[in-house]
Amino acid sequence: MTSSTEVDDLATKARRWLDCIRSTPLHPQFFAFKYEELRHRYTAGHCRGLVLDIGSGRQPLRDQLDRSCRYIPLDYPRTGNAYDSKPLVHGDAGQLPFAEAVFDTVVLLEVLEHLPAPKKAMQEACRVLKPNGKLIISTPFIYPIHDAPHDYQRWTQFGIEELSQQSGLVIDESLPLGQTLESSALLFNLGYAWEALNSRGLRRMALLILATVLIPLSNILAMLFNTGRLNRALSPISIGYLCVLRKNNV
Description:
This protein is α/β, with parallel strands linked by helices. The chain contains seven helices and seven strands; from the N terminus they run ααββαββαβαβααβ.
């Protein structure tokens, strides 16, 4: 009979193994990581001049920026410490410690959902932007609660448009991240992995063993049946959204 200690060790080994396969369909968050990489490349390609990265975390954007950019990472002390963040500036997204019209580009990647007052953060980003400066945001739509208890809301594409207008910004580009089957596979995989890792005894072991088949199968089928079938702009079930906004000077 398998002891609870042996099963716990199995779960720990499973987590370590998952770190090694995050870029393959074997990982339950395969599609999330796929679009995370796209999000950083796309954002870096739109950054110009003096760039403020709000909620910079471990600063994955820094190394992808053009050499002409000057990068200012900012993070909130409490949450930044949880991610071993080493920002140049500590501050609050809702009360930025900068004068008006300073930055050419402001970045808010996967941050708005963790703010109790996201509209205030958007208005502050608009305030510190130069005329015609760009704000680049990304936020999840179909994704489980994370970083609890600091996970407050989700937006549709239309909600982002409304929030942007209220903050004095206009949307230049909007990119849904994840086609319908990709989003569905991600949600199934994360739900299944959560159940497996939070079970006990033989049930956990059985779920973990089945995961080695069900999770890769889910990812592979989503890739196969999505190919050329659906325009991403029409997908009603996206993992999230990536938007390029411009300061409205009217």
